[in-house]
Amino acid sequence: MQAHRGRSDRRSAGTGARVLILANFTVIYDACLLYPAPLRDLMIRLALTGKFRAKWTAQIQQEWLDAVLRDRPDLDRRRLERTIDRMNEAVPDCLVSDYESLIDDFELPDPDDRHVLAAAIRAGAQCIVTTNLRDFPADTLKRFDIFARHPDAFVLDLVDLEAEVVLAAVKQQRAALNNPPYTPEQLIDALRQVGLTGVASLLTDWIEVI
């Protein structure tokens, strides 16, 4: 199986520069990657491949937990906190700390996002993976040799390099969905609905193997 080439249209979902994903390539996951659940599930599975280093902070984790509970106050906070604990345990060296002193060193369109860039700087990250690209202007980020990337473009970059890694993660994701079980078509649709439109289109061509 080979990745599809020539997808110039999806390069606009970020800086336009191709992501060089290697084992020492470090990215910060913004809170918007960790909620909704289908996106979180895939991005954590990809983080476990060891093809790059995914990091976040306790504050980022708290942001997505609070967002879930605002939308679904009926859910059990303790269960969500256990999910966070499992994520932190599963992904090696994922938590960034001691970044707070950097927050006032720059400006962003939304001041509440400064902690994400501060964490990226402290972690030595090259990339912030986020669906909120407008909140992380390239002119500001390039001062720190960092760029922002939409998760759709990020995953497709990984497909270009190692398609089998992404396919294995998607297969694992579907296999874990058993209450209720998902067909390949249902999982692809779920990923499309959370913004992975390019990934969903590609997976449609590989539906027989997921």
Q: How does this model look, in words?
A:
This protein is of the alpha/beta class and 210 residues long. It has one domain (20-209). The chain has 8 helices and 4 strands; from the N terminus they run βαβαααβαβααα. It has a 4-stranded parallel beta sheet with strand order 2-1-3-4. Helix 7 runs antiparallel to helix 8 (197-205). The radius of gyration is 17 Å and the shape is globular.
Helix-strand sequence: EHEHHHEHEHHH
How many distinct domains? 1
> Termini separation (Å)?
12 Å
Arithmetic mean of pLDDT = 91
Q: Strand portion, in percent?
A: 5-15%
Show unreliable segments.
Answer: 1-17
Number of DSSP helical runs: 8
Q: Largest sheet, described in full?
A: 4 strands, parallel
State the strand order across the main sheet. Answer: 2-1-3-4
Helix content: 40-55%
How does the helix and strand content classify structurally?
alpha/beta
> What sort of overall outline do the alpha carbons produce when their principal axes are compared?
globular
By DSSP, the count of extended strands is 4
Rg, alpha carbons: 17 Å
Summarize the structure.
The protein has helices at residues 37-47, 58-71, 77-90, 114-123, 138-141, 151-176, 184-193, 197-205; strands at residues 26-29, 53-55, 127-129, 147-149. The protein is of the alpha/beta class and 210 residues long. The protein starts with 25 loop residues before the first strand and ends in a 5-residue tail after the last helix.
